[in-house]
Amino acid sequence: MTQDINLKLLKKAGELNFKTQKFAKNLIKVGSDLSRIGVEIDKFILDNGAVPAWPVNLSVNNEAAHNTYDLESPVILKEDDVLKVDVGVSIEGYIADSAQTIIFNKKHESLRDASFFALKKAKEHLINNYKTTKISDLGKIIDKEITSRGFKTIINLTGHAIERYEPHASPSIPNTSNDINIPITEINLPFAIEPFASTGDGFVSEADKILIFQHIEDRGIRNKDAKLILEEIHKYNGTPFSEYWVGKNLSTFQRRYALRELLKNEIIASFPVLVDRKDSYVSQAETTFIVDEKEGLLDLVNIDELY
């Protein structure tokens, strides 16, 4: 493990991540408004001495990732919904990442289980073989588990390494067969494994909806509202932020125009909601691992208890 990783803080972030996911599972019910759920989850992290590494992702049905709570467009959960809850907890920039799928209708159990057991199989393999496992081995295990259950693995979403203040770092960890023969022991960073199972095409595309952004670099900008938001986003240290975390004293029009100006000038990047085909359903499961020289393979979040 590289010397600049604080394992104590990573473990602490992982423990709080699990508590946050447990809090979310108890909070989420049919009839709940995603806006209230998202605000409460992010608040739970802040109240426990950490910060969200990104706005909690609350992606419903064919949405696979990058949706979050929209304070101006309430979404009420229905019994037939499949909800992915993707949580990042950051303590001094050390990030633990996890996701669970919450269902209310038993007909979606097999879909939920497909992503969870794909993650579980990968974890079991790592526990027994982490010293010899390569990234390519994990893709084969995950894809086989999902497809054997009658679902498609989403091929253009992957796991990933995690750097300090950077949730998605290289290398990627695909969920399908690949030729990335990097040994897990050489990643030298925390890494997230996150299988996605789908009843759709197994391929996501970008929707029009965008609520999550990330600071890239400072550049000159004329719009005064954009300047105001740029000053605000510095406190996130380059981690993703929500439209609703900034520009709270601005009107919706002013805030969105300012964000468009920042995007146009390549000061920030955007994360559109990622969707499989209409009327399909997607499930997700995720946890964060690290290989430590003394302690071996560690599962920092261990979402198993949530299922």
What does this structure look like?
- There is one protein chain.
- The chain folds into two domains: 224 residues, Creatine Amidinohydrolase; 62 residues, Arc Repressor Mutant, subunit A (Orthogonal Bundle).
- It is globular and about 55 Å long.
- The model has no long low-confidence stretch (mean pLDDT 96).
- The chain has six helices and 16 strands.
- Strands 8-7-9-15-16 form a five-stranded antiparallel sheet. Strands 1, 2, 4 and 5 form a four-stranded antiparallel sheet that branches.
- The chain has 307 residues and is of the alpha+beta class.
- The longest helix has 21 residues.
Question: Which descriptors apply to this entry?
Answer:
4-stranded antiparallel β-sheet; single chain; 6 helices; Creatine Amidinohydrolase; 2 domains; Arc Repressor Mutant, subunit A; 307 residues; alpha+beta
